[in-house]
Write a structure and sequence with these properties.
173 residues, 66% helix, 12 helices, mainly alpha
């Protein structure tokens, strides 16, 4: 079944009245594999920053809870890669301390097995600290999520409508 990417995205331009959060998940399915990844990343990043969606740390915690072990490890590695050694030390004394024991310098790479020991609530706390320390972590997470469209779909219809609206705006320019 063929579809017209432009026509689907048109209804989401500017978050207009024709944007239907209930339809957004179906439309997102059709678009996710066809749209340029950079466009997807911009849309996801905008949804992560929007005042129409839950705060960034809450969304990251939610997505972490929906992710598979590899995605969870990837999310943690993105968050940890966005912070400096000082914040890593603070995190090491807290939620992720057991993961850093024995790490000799550099940013640790969290494995899927290690990520399984971390809760969505802990990830929410880490995301909040990372965002305070380095606001560009939101862009980094948007790029990461754009590589995992099935995970993005779990953020809900309103956020998906924002993603699609940003994609439509980006493709129009």
């Amino acid at each position: 079944m063929a579809f017209d990417l432009g026509n689907i995205l048109q209804q989401y331009l500017g978050g207009g009245a024709s944007a239907n959060p209930a339809r957004a998940a179906d439309d997102f399915d059709q678009i996710a594999n066809s749209a340029p990844q950079a466009s997807m990343a911009q849309g996801v990043t905008e949804a992560l920053r929007s005042d129409q969606t839950p705060p960034f740390p809450q969304m990251v915690g939610q997505l972490f809870g929906q992710g598979d072990p590899n995605q969870r490890a990837g999310m943690l590695n993105q968050l940890l890669g966005s912070v400096g050694p000082g914040l890593l030390g603070a995190l090491a004394g807290g939620a992720l301390g057991h993961l850093f024991s024995g790490n000799q310098g550099g940013t640790p790479q969290i494995t899927p097995a290690q990520a399984a020991a971390v809760t969505p609530a802990q990830v929410q706390q880490i995301a909040a600290q990372a965002e305070q320390h380095n606001p560009s972590v939101v862009d980094r997470m948007g790029d990461f999520y754009a590589q995992h469209p099935t995970l993005v779909k779990s953020i809900g219809g309103a956020a998906l409508a924002i993603v699609l609206g940003r994609m439509a705006d980006g493709m129009r320019h």
